[in-house]
Write a structure and sequence with these properties.
By secondary structure, this protein is of the alpha/beta class. It has one domain: Rossmann fold (3-Layer(aba) Sandwich). It is about 25% helix and about 25% strand. A hairpin with a 7-residue loop joins strand 9 and strand 10. The longest helix is centred in the first third of the chain and has 15 residues.
Length: about 240
């Protein structure tokens, strides 16, 4: 009798742990290529990827391997969570082909520091860049770990629709001194002094959907329910399965 009662209680509690999320309008899963390597992260990120419902993913731990061949027909979107100073041919050309074909791109956290020698990438596509070192009049960007912040939606958009227009609390790493294009569309921001403000934005590129998600350093972000939905919906939106 006691065993039955405790089993029932566990089932009930688990059913209440997450709000119901609808996949209405999604007929098949987004085919996502996740690119990692070079950056630091907690191992819990691999469990986090499994929470991205509506998404079927392939994980590759090197951008040169991930983009070594034309992959336009294999994936609907790329999630970049890597850290790489440059990208050589033929990987560079294959990534350009993918983006210019209208496929989706999500640039996540330390991937903002990618490809500092490629202005087309960070100026026209991403719309932002973390500077690993100073360049001319621009000082190196800075980061601050274990920051508590309030993140507020700046406008109604499918990527942040799960927040219902309400602010959310994040405990994460902040970036300061980024180069951010004036042409980005900011979706989520914070007033914290150790941040530039914008946390999630739509990149300026016109031929494909690009979303930048700056938070995401560790498990406090990975398993924050609001953040989890934002990253999932960013993937789905850039892939065209969420409108």
């Amino acid at each position: 009798m006691k065993c039955w009662f405790y089993c029932f209680l566990l089932i009930l509690l688990s059913s209440l742990s997450l709000p119901a999320q609808s996949n209405e309008g999604t007929t098949e899963k987004v085919r996502l290529l996740i690119v990692m390597g070079g950056g630091t992260y907690e191992s819990s990120v691999f469990r986090f990827f499994d929470t991205l419902d509506g998404v079927s993913y392939t994980l590759v731990m090197s951008d040169t391997v991930a983009f070594k061949e034309d992959f336009r027909d294999q994936y609907d979107a790329v999630l970049m969570y890597n850290l790489s100073s440059s990208l050589a041919e033929p990987a560079r050309s294959n990534l350009v082909r993918f983006i210019e074909s209208g496929k989706g791109l999500v640039v996540w956290h330390h991937a903002l520091a990618n490809y500092g020698d490629w202005p087309w990438w960070y100026q026209e596509v991403v719309g932002g860049r973390y500077l690993l070192r100073g360049e001319g009049e621009l000082p190196a960007s800075t980061y601050r770990q274990d920051e508590s912040m309030i993140a507020r939606p700046e406008k109604a958009h499918p990527v942040v629709s799960s927040l219902g227009g309400h602010p959310m609390h994040l405990y994460d790493e902040t970036y300061k001194g980024l180069w951010i294009s004036p042409d980005v569309e900011v979706l989520l921001s914070t007033g914290l002094s150790t941040s530039d403000g914008p946390l999630v934005w739509v990149g300026p590129y016109q031929s494909a959907r690009v979303v930048v998600v700056q938070p995401g350093h560790g498990s406090s972000a990975y398993f924050n329910l609001g953040f989890r939905y934002i990253l999932r919906d960013a993937v789905r939106w850039v892939a065209g399965s969420l409108e």
